[in-house]
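User: Okay, second chain of the day. Same drill as before: sequence in, structure tokens out.
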Amino acid sequence: PMSGLSIRKLFKAYGSVVAVDGIDLEIAEGELVVLLGPSGCGKTTTLRCIAGLEDLSDGSILIGDKVVSEKGRSLPPERREIGMVFQSYAIWPHMTVTENVAFGLKLKKLPKAEIDSKVKAALELVGLTGYSTRHVSQLSGGQQQRVALARAMALEPRILLFDEPLSNLDAKLREKMRFELRQIQQRLGITSVYVTHDQQEAMVIADRIVLMRNGVIEQIGSPVDLYHRPRTRFAAEFVGLANIYPGVAVGDEARLEGGLKLKVDGKQAGNVDVIFRPEHVRVLEKKPDGVNVVKARVKESYFLGNTTDLVLTAAGMDIRAQLSPAKLYGPGSDLWIQIDPESVVLLPRLAEKVATPELATA
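Assistant: Same drill. Structure tokens below.
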């Protein structure tokens, strides 16, 4: 049976160190939610609490309508009907592929015919049908991770948990496996929680991203929401690249401290962080018509194949732009830039923030 997952006021502390600080999260049946954030944000601790590998300091966790964790009581992992795929694969190197996938099924003492059927189905799902008799030590890293996934899925869990499962793979294989994992999860429709610090990975596979920081949830939303509508400066910096400058909003205009004035979509007032993405900076050789046009000079230029990454100086500030398709401009080139008012995000600025222009490169 499919199942949703509820996390209610989850609090986890190790002595005086708070790892997770009272988070609430509802995950729908069949949804794939990614816990994203930097090291130490609480994402892995949250996953371990869901798995039953950590006791809660407070709060509760429910799978469907069944409480599996609360203060003073925790159902052991083997009774939670979960499957878990680890960063380290956690498979037996001396066993064959079939023996690894069948391991958990044998512990359940299922009939041999049923085990054989489930193993066959799981290997078909991950594309390893022809590898059943091989020892896993003979497989590539990507194939070993598929074995770990097949083993988890053969148990037909209610919840699938992924703990940075692709971080040990090389970049090309990691990119390929992102799509494969997403396709498999969608076909199965199993409720899944996936932990990563890789924002691109999160963007590819998530139905929703839960961005965490310092043990709390910073923002929840679809990849599109988090990228185009960040609610905090941290969210804008962590998910993608962003130009971020302190300024003052007056009506439909943002006045940056470097002297630049930008028309914006909507009206606000007060101290703000002015945010826009590098790909929303239009770079032109001739002055265009319209608003938010500024003369700029190329400071740095990097050719990345499909894009060119530029740092331009305009109105006394460094502004980052990305050109696609790529076009080369040498340092010192004089250009014009234009910023669409609809692409500018204004967020209230806290008084303690340093009031100097900066270029966010998180």
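The two ends are 40 Å apart (CA to CA).

User: Thanks, on to the next one.
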